[in-house]
Amino acid sequence: MEIQRKIKFEEELSRDFLDEIKEMSHCDEIDRCIQCGTCSSSCPMAIYMDYPPRKIIAFVKNGFREEALKSFTIWLCSSCYTCQVRCPAKIKITDVMYALKRKAIQEKVYPGQFAIPVLAREMYRMIAKNGRSSELWLILNLYLKSWNPFGLLKMAPTGIRLLKTGRMSLKRERIKNTKQLQKILKAVKEDGQ
Ligand code: SF4
Ligand code: SF4
After folding, report:
1. Which atom of ligand 1 lies closest to the CA of 38?
2. Residue 44 in contact with ligand 1 by CB distance below 6 A
3. How many domains does the chain have?
4. Is 192 a residue whose pLDDT tops 70?
């Protein structure tokens, strides 16, 4: 049996991680966390998470890049902002979660077969290309790119009913001026770097 090392040595920590996330989340207060646990005890999703929000903030503060970016927690956060409004250190925890999701997508370290990051990525791609999301194509991409064709087969009867009643369309939605949208997205991306 392979013995797994659970501790990390100082030299293995990512020294730049805190500053990167501070910049992306526009939250300079992360290192003021007092580990009180108010965020974790307020979080409605905490029971499903692999690490509670308190621990994610500790990871960011102390340079545990891999642990934070590969966690399921960041994808399970429902952006309810409860932790953020209750944090005594005024840490923008929800915004930190968003920054971690963006970073995980940038560094391609999100759990590849977990539907939420795949959905976020595919929806972004579709909107960046066409200015709109088309439900049918988004769902197809989601199931195929998260390697879940059986899930797709299971949903097929519902999809057919939605198509028949006109609640879903085969058409790919597209806005007129996609070039203008792409210019805006490029400017936002440059501003965020
Ligand atoms: S509520 Fe704020 S200060 Fe308390 S553990 Fe969470 S992030 Fe840290
Ligand atoms: S914003 Fe996310 S982390 Fe914070 S309480 Fe809500 S679900 Fe939990």
Report:
1. 1
2. no
3. 2
4. no
